[in-house]
Each structure stands twice: as structure tokens, then as C-alpha cells.
Amino acid sequence: MSVLITNIGELLTSDPDGTTLRDAAVVFEGERISWIGPAAHAPAADESHDAGGRAGLPGWVDSHTHLVFAGDRTAEFEARMAGESYAAGGIAVTVDATRAAGDYDLTRLLLARVAEAAAGGTTYLETKTGYGLDVEQEARSARIAAGVADEVTFLGAHLVPRGEDADHYTDLVCGPMLDAVRPYVRWADVFCETGAFTAEQSRRVLSASAAAGLGLRVHGNQLGPGDGVALAVEFGAASVDHVNHLTDDDVEALAGTWAGFAARGEPGTVATCLPACDLSTRQPFPPARRLLGAGVQLAIASNCNPGTSFTSSMAFCVATAVLQMGLTVQEAVRAATFGGALALRRHTGDDEDGRRAVGSLAVGHRADLQLLDAPSATHLAYRPGMPLVHAVWRAGSRVR
Ligand code: NIG
């Protein structure tokens, strides 16, 4: 069945050229985009929807969340707002609650969070394990996540569990735990930070994960300068996430990974910014303008988790990136759509597994579109916090 969405006042395509169309229309054929262009020239379709001059853009691609958890960390948040600084140790509180939850409850909680994200315009979402931290619990989190999320990342190397030896635990992550999660995950990640995993331990996790055929991501340079970015670049990770504390060398190393993108379309290591987390942990924002100026591709993601960023609102993250990080609306929207797709290596289609590209609007890409109750995407930052989502299509189906 074909669906025509017409009379779109402003359409941000998030294509590599940053094309914005006025008075535009899009046609979906099943789950794919079959036509895009000026409304006046749109072909007929089985069904049509009049956007009434509203702004349209791709659905959000949220490339960094931690949604498989139980429990609550309001007290930790209150303490932080009263002046305490974030320490990764709070993760252990969520580990206890998650281990204690049954499969049914953990699944129900995850489904509710994904539904919340979808209501906010997210049409493609990654989530991680990382609150199980033993073989059985990490495998359970991965299995539950694989039934719900578009992409699953193994984050056994999130925190060394209380009372365990760090090197012994790293062995477990690199061996039995990796084997147990392997059927459910496409990615592996490591929290390379003081208080979590050292550079050497992180290197072991990345090596073992690469050898197991997983794509790599790194939590790096969140709470202070460190080795996360350098390791991500060394291992050809698809993204390094947080990037709050970067040296000149870090920026240069990331820029170097993008040298072949324009000519050969070969993506480098995406710098994923998590602005809602930065607000909640009172960290400096990443040097986004500097990264862009150096040629680094950015993603913006929600980092929805119970400790540092309990929101899945990509619109809030985009507004914060504009209001606080100095990005233009177009740059922020691109980072939250195409950038997320790049970070998940879903920016192009994959004929082998029949997957369609997400994160930008072009013929052949997955039909993921949101309409805002606003005449332009600028309203995302101009009216921060307002419920601007008017309609959402995911893979050609209206989900809101
Ligand atoms: O991305 N940095 C590590 N992991 C999460 C926080 C997890 C938590 O505190 O529960 C993050 O911010």
C-alpha cells in the first residue's frame, strides 16, 4: 500500500547535503520511501495525509540508551542537585534492582520506555546491557533487549561488581559473558573511565569483542580526560560516546578517522554527544563546534538511563544542543537522525540482511518520518520542552 504525505511546509531530509525542501511531499510504498519532492508534483497514492504546512523530519535515531533496568535513583539525583558529583558507583544500585526483577517485569519496563521514546518521535533505537554484570544476568538482559530494541549492545564492562577483582571480572567479560550474550547483540561497549575500566582492561574487552565479530563502541572522556577516544580510534569503533573532556590530540585523532568519508563514503568514529546527561551530571558539554569544524561527524543521543539521564526525549536533547552547545537546528537535527544512523552503521541500506537505511529521507530508505506541530524545525529549540510531535510513521506505519 502507498501513502502520500503532502503539504509539508518545511522538510529536513538529513541527507548528506543537508537538503531542506519547502512545500514538500513524501510517498511511502510499504516500509520504504518511494518518492520525495515538491508537493505540486507528487504522484497519487492509495492513502493521503495532509500535513497542513507542518514541518517534517526523519524519526529520531537514538543511538545510545540503557533501558534494560529496574529500580529508581531519585535519591542519587537529589544528592547531585545538592552538590555531590556523579560517580559511576551508582550503577551498582541499579544492578541490585535489575537482578531482583523477574523477566516479565524487566520486559514490561523496557517496553514502556521504548513506547515513551516512540511517542517522542524516536523510530530507531539502540539499547545496552550493563545492569546485570554476571554471565546469566547479562545474557538475560541481552535476550530481553533483542526482543524489543532495534540494536543491542553488550556492556558487561560497565562497572566492576562490588567485591570482585577488576582483572578477574574483565576475564569473565571477555570470555564466558561474551559467549553468552553473543547470539543477541551486534555491538560491544566498554566504560573506559576512572572508577570503571582502565585503558588496559578496556583494550582487552575491545579486542575480545572484535574477535567475536561484534562492532565496537566506547564510553569515553565523560568525567575527565582519558584514553577512551584514543582506544576507540585505535580499534576503529563506530562511535565514542560522551566526549566531554577532549584534548587537541583527541580531536585530531577523531578527525583523522573521517578522511575517507567524503570521497569513499567510509565512515569513521562518530562523536556521540549526550546533552541531557551533561546537564544532569553538570559536566561541560562536548566541544561540538570544534569537532564539526575538524570534520568529525556528530551524533546526539538521549543516553536514557536511571543514573545520569532519565529522559528519552530526543527533542529535549536537540533543543539543549542548540541552546547550550552552539549547534544550529539543522546540525542538531542531523546529528540526532543521520548522525545516530552513522553511529549504528545504518545510514546506508544493507542488502545482505535486507535492512533499509534509517536517519535520512531519500528514496529506498526506511519510511521513518515525524511531523511537528510547528511550521519549522526551529521550533524544537524555540519552544523547548513543548510536546511538538504531531504524527510519526515508522517503517511506513503510522505509530502516532
Ligand atoms: O552513559 N557512563 C556510564 N554509563 C551511564 C550511566 C549509567 C548509570 O549511572 O546508571 C552513562 O552515563
UniProtKB/TrEMBL annotation:
Pfam families: Amidohydro_1
Keywords assigned: Cytoplasm, Histidine metabolism, Hydrolase, Iron, Metal-binding, Zinc
Positions with a binding annotation for Fe(3+): 64, 66, 219, 303
GO molecular function: imidazolonepropionase activity; iron ion binding; zinc ion binding
GO cellular component, one term: cytoplasm
Main subcellular location of this protein, as a coarse class: cytoplasm
Binding sites annotated in the UniProt record for N-formimidoyl-L-glutamate: 131, 305, 307
InterPro entries associated with the record: Amidohydro-rel, HutI, Metal-dep_hydrolase_composite, Metal_Hydrolase
Residue ranges the record marks as coiled coil: none
Keyword Iron annotated: yes
List of residues binding Zn(2+): 64, 66, 219, 303
UniProt superkingdom: Bacteria
EC class: hydrolase
Cofactor binding mode and count: Binds 1 zinc or iron ion per subunit.
Cofactor(s) essential for the protein: Zn(2+); Fe(3+)
Catalysed reaction, written as an equation: 4-imidazolone-5-propanoate + H2O = N-formimidoyl-L-glutamate
Biological processes, Gene Ontology terms: L-histidine catabolic process to glutamate and formamide; L-histidine catabolic process to glutamate and formate
EC number(s) given by UniProt: 3.5.2.7
UniProt keyword annotation of Transmembrane helix present: no
Function: Catalyzes the hydrolytic cleavage of the carbon-nitrogen bond in imidazolone-5-propanoate to yield N-formimidoyl-L-glutamate. It is the third step in the universal histidine degradation pathway.
NCBIfam families (alphabetical): hutI (TIGR01224)
Stated name of the protein: Imidazolonepropionase
